[in-house]
Amino acid sequence: MIKRLLLGSVLALLMAACGDFPGGKATISGYVVDMKAGEPVVGSTVTVLRTGVSTTTDENGFYSVKVRPGRHTLVFQKEGYATSRVEGLMTFGPETHYSTIQRPLFDPAVPADPPRLWVQLPDWYEPGDEVTVTVSGQVRNAIANSFVFLDVAIGQQGGSSGYLNGFVRHERVFNFDGSEVQVTLSTEGYSDVVPVYTVAYDANNNRTEVIRYLYRQPDADAAAPAQPANLSGEAVTFGDIAVFGTMSVPSITAQGVVTALKTRDLDTLQSMAKELSAARGNVGLMGSELRKAISWVDLSFSYDPSAPAPEAFEIFRKRADEEDFAKIARIAAGDALQDEEAGLYAFRDASPGVQPGVLLTYRVDAVNGEARASSDTFNLTPLPPFYVEALSPADNVTGVDLAPGYVISVENSADVNFLAAIVLDRVQSDGFDVEYFSPIFVVPGSDGAFHPFNGFEGIPHGVVEIDGGYGLTGAILQPFHAYDWTPFAVTASLNAEGTAIEAVSIGADFFNLWGPFAVEDGPFNTFVTGAGGSQ
Amino acid sequence: MRKLVVLFGLIGLLAACSTGVRAPAPANPHGDGPRVDAGGNYIEGQVIVGYAAGASADSLAAWLGGQVLQDWTPVRIAVIALPERLTVEKAVGLLARRPGVRYAEPNRVYPKVEPVPAVNPTGVDAMGLYSDPDFYKQWMHRQMNTEAAWAEGITGAGVRIGIHDDFVDHRHPDLAGNIAYPGFYGTTAELICPDTPHNGLGTHGSSVAGTAAGVANRIGGRGIAYEASIVPIAIDHPTQGFLTSVGIINGALFAAVGPEALGIPVPEGCGGYTPPDGRPYVDIVNMSWGGGVYSQATKDVMDFMLAYGVVLVTSAGNTPTTGFAEPAWFPGLITVAATQANGHRTDFSNRGVHLDVAAPGQNIWVPTTRHCILIDPTGASCTGDEADYTYIGGTSFSSPATAGAAALVLQAAGGAGTLDARQVRAILSETANDANADEYPGFDQDLGWGIVDAGAAVAKALAIRAGDEDAPAPAANLDIYVTDANTGTPLPLTGAALQPVDADDQPLTDRPILLSQTTGSGVFSDAGWASFYQIDPGRYAVFVSGPHWKKTGIVPGLAAGVITVPSGNWQLPIELDVQLPTDPYEPNDDTGSATPVSVGTTYKGILYADGGGDVDYYALPVTSGTSYYVNSETLSGSADLVLTVLDSDGSTVIAQNDNNQDFSKDALVTFTAAADATYYLKVEDGGNGNSPFNAYALDIATGPVAESEPNGAASVSGTAITGVDLTDAQSVALGSVVSASLDPSGDDDIFAVTLTAGATLVVDAETASNGVPDTMVAVYDAGGTQLAFNDDFTGRESRLEFEPGADGTYYVLVTAWDGDGPGGTTGDYTLSLTALDTP
């Protein structure tokens, strides 16, 4: 133990000695996005303090700077945006990756000064130890500002969203006000150098992150792990940003979601919608562009269930415009486990760099002490947002036909579209009656073209069954009565063999037919029927 | 804040001169004044400290080795001169970690902030000095221009705002001064008096109240109308916390008429208020809640309050959606969307043609229920110094911000009652700041008519009061009364729609179509009324259709036309030609004419008679020792069913039930026959209703038969049922009732029953409590194909009818909604399987 401690100290000293690392320069690079799983922040000025080095992010939100090896503070600034700041970022080799979030400035009248954070934690740890992180802080411009959120995460960056951070080991403190807080996290499954990310936001969206590192000598005698297999995944582009604030329901497990996505099980669903709307409700808690891309990748892989689980998995990713793989996460095996018997594991990559239209290649390494085994690679390309407009019946109109055709237009179709019309009788009579639920049509995608439901000029109503699930009787609509309708619209790209869905973009899904959450900001048109012909 | 800096800067200058303390100075363009650091950001040698209650500026200064230049004790802010060689940065760092220090900052020189023109033209410069230390965290005042209203002496004084929400922390130091007792706990129908304990759950209401009318004092911030009165009207459940219909309805009644009119005496020490003649108990009601489904009961209470002269303000909703939300979509209310500090709508704010205005709704810094109250609602753990605050967001806060603005408008106009709700809405809309005019001039679906500008609205109200401007036209109040042309029977469940049109009868497509439905009998008014209160006077196309086709089974009558509705109260009678439903078993009003019935059958009747008081009698032959189960289930209408079983003498009561559940007005009796005889089943309306639409079903079965497990299985997710396994389905005779339970979680029960072609099967699942379990029922053929399905029929219990095409064995499945998922429920139920009588 003493030997390890000494090694630890020497290593720490070596790394702390700025400017004396043999070899000269180190590169720090990464991506800046405007929210978790959000879009690139272009033209943000990245400054490395006390070095005079600065650059700006490009059209992918990407930046790269050359610095002396050592510990650095970076500040990200842009007009109209809050300031993001990271302290304690260490270069452990020639290439260091650091990505961050930079939010739009909430209040233009209050300056974009990031808060101060003070973080204390031990430098070294024993396997499976808990570490206690002590945090306190102070906002700038305190007369008009306060903290709103604190997160302490181990292994990878966390955040306020429960769902998008579903695989991160972290603790969120929603009532942080700057006074001292202690957070305890387990180090189970970690060794070597492990970052601890402490992030706080103030009310103006300024963000300060302090990175500290835990170190434990990896076990040199650990058995070589097996090779992770069957790496696959699905990229999800999600059409509703409102749900990914702090109102995400953390109790929804990732397993059910991943299973539903993998098996394309359209029958598995509204449970989460009900739970989510109970949590959110309309009561309280609760640049607003509707046309935004929120995109992440759900990965799954297997690992021989008869073999002992490795200590951890490391996820590597390479964009088409990058030369090398970069490690984007290290996750303890237990945190990625989905099904012990089958040896199934999963990980959600909601980190900056996931971008519509950019081919991503993933690799998963099983890591045991100093030994590792790599999976084969897997690649996919996230889709752009799927825009859908409900054209007819239009909103706020009267005189609608008693058996109208439901017409939508779509933009950014991929290989195949899933479309349906859902008509409700809930705006002028008690209760929530589904007046009509069309079959879910699976149609070939084609960009920007009109998509009336094929063969249904005036839709005949009747008993319909959807994948053997349930049937609904719809009659001809009542004359002079108000209804409302919404489309269900999802587009998907298929893998090269055409056997599985590679990426999906959800345009409108108010009733959470697709999952994992309802996309509720899609169109809802309320209309009143006309008199109709003879009845 | 800049004024503060200048003031302290001057004092610093004087202090520096008098003590002769001089730090070595670089060239200072300001001469012998306070030195500003090279970056032009702050004054050298000084630090501003915000200190906590109980701490002392002097001791902090002494600890630093400096001295106090200025100590502003009401807000506990001090300026400290630093000793030489202690830089501002170092001092701030030292102080920040020191107990007793809320914050430490350089004595800043603020850059002039360009006002954001689209948000507030008078901008930051309008800020004066306020006693509330957190005032500058409340950007809502800046965006809503409330200071201009206050500068006119308009603060909301004399106006009463009902906070129709969860339980307000009415003794919170930043709310207590404005609470007007008695308030009301709608769910329990009890008054809220000063010593009434909190219910330990509500936090939302405290923040809503603080947004509208938080007190101006030396703590926290302040509300938009900081001298208005807050009347807390709690509508949440005392142990579960969710909002209750009972709370909503009772709370609304209280808001309109007050305690005495409800027969609740106001005890000594609980305040008291007698409204002036013709005025409601509160002037404004804020409703920061809503749902996605039309409810006639909610519509009725909204109309009730509007009719009493209450101004109703509600949140648009946070879905976000352009779809229906109630009460936001009900005619006559002021519906408010949410903005961010940059003047844009928030990501979550609902959109659409039904918006009126927008107001701040994100990062709103307001009081919240004190932590000591959540721990001990009696307040015993509170020391009296606690005053908790929070950042909070939602259209829930845009609404009370607007309610506060409405209070300011009413006061400016001469007091509550000088303007009606429509006029208040018009003033707020006409003076709103069209913040997104460069993209969407005029009304738009993001911000409605714009962001509430309290200063401009108050200026207009003052001008109206002074006679310099005309008030907007008063409201039009329209009652459409729909009757059957043939009998004059008022028709419930009939929809009426008003579409605004221009002089040429062309639709005004950016104005919302107003929707209503006629009332049923007995709740607030007689049946047949569709109300549109506090709407804009003008021209409307009217569309009337009903009774509801699917719910009543009769062909609806239709009417359409164009009407002009001026300001004032109007009635529009509409006669529709409909074939009213009739009870096939009439006459059966006494034992002598009782309808003969047999066990194992369902009969559908209607409680309606000319002159009212209809009673239906059914004669049932019974066998000694047999146990019977008789269930009456409402099919439509609003009868409060009462079931009585009478002995063959026609008067001895063997069993009686009014309500067998707390979530319905249905009745159910079970009894064992003491002899072979004819018993009489009597069905009547305990609520004395009378309508051809008060239809019920009467299920008569024998049993109960015990359930035997295992009895089949299925996979259930949401409403989707797959993988139905009919193995071990329990055979049950048609006409029986089964006593069963869904237990453990994921249990499914399948019963096999033999049916005859053409004889409709009635399946009814009864639970004692709503949703415990939340049942679903379905019918399958032997091949596992689903033939019929129901999830919710009465509350969350299920019922269906199924007509088999062929003789054979059919399978009735009972399961829980989302039975195999996280939303699944368990519990006991009874299942009756009867044949529908064809009269």
UniProtKB/TrEMBL annotation, chain A:
Entry keywords, A to Z: Carboxypeptidase, Hydrolase, Protease, Signal
Signal peptide location: 1-19
Superkingdom of the organism of origin: Bacteria
GO function terms (MF aspect): carboxypeptidase activity
SUPFAM superfamilies xrefs: Carboxypeptidase regulatory domain-like (SSF49464)
InterPro entries on file: CarboxyPept-like_regulatory
Protein name in the entry: Carboxypeptidase-like regulatory domain-containing protein
TrEMBL record, chain B:
Cellular component, GO annotation: membrane
Domain of life: Bacteria
Domain Fervidolysin-like N-terminal prodomain: start-end pairs: 37-107
Biological process per Gene Ontology, one example term: protein processing
Family matches, as InterPro entries: Fervidolysin-like_N_prodom (IPR054399), Peptidase_C_arc/bac (IPR007280), Peptidase_S8/S53_dom (IPR000209), Peptidase_S8/S53_dom_sf (IPR036852), Peptidase_S8_His-AS (IPR022398), Peptidase_S8_Ser-AS (IPR023828), Peptidase_S8_subtilisin-rel (IPR015500), S8pro/Inhibitor_I9_sf (IPR037045)
GO MF, one example: serine-type endopeptidase activity
Pfam families per UniProt: Fervidolysin_NPro-like, Peptidase_S8, PPC
Peptidase S8/S53 domain: residues covered: 156-450
Peptidase C-terminal archaeal/bacterial domain location: 614-684
UniProt entry keywords in alphabetical sequence: Hydrolase, Protease, Serine protease, Signal
Residues annotated as signal peptide: 1-27
Active site: D165 (charge relay system), H204 (charge relay system), S396 (charge relay system)
PANTHER family listed in its UniProt record: NEUROENDOCRINE CONVERTASE 1 (PTHR42884:SF14), PROPROTEIN CONVERTASE SUBTILISIN/KEXIN-RELATED (PTHR42884)
Similarity-based family: Belongs to the peptidase S8 family.
Protein name listed in UniProt: Peptidase S8
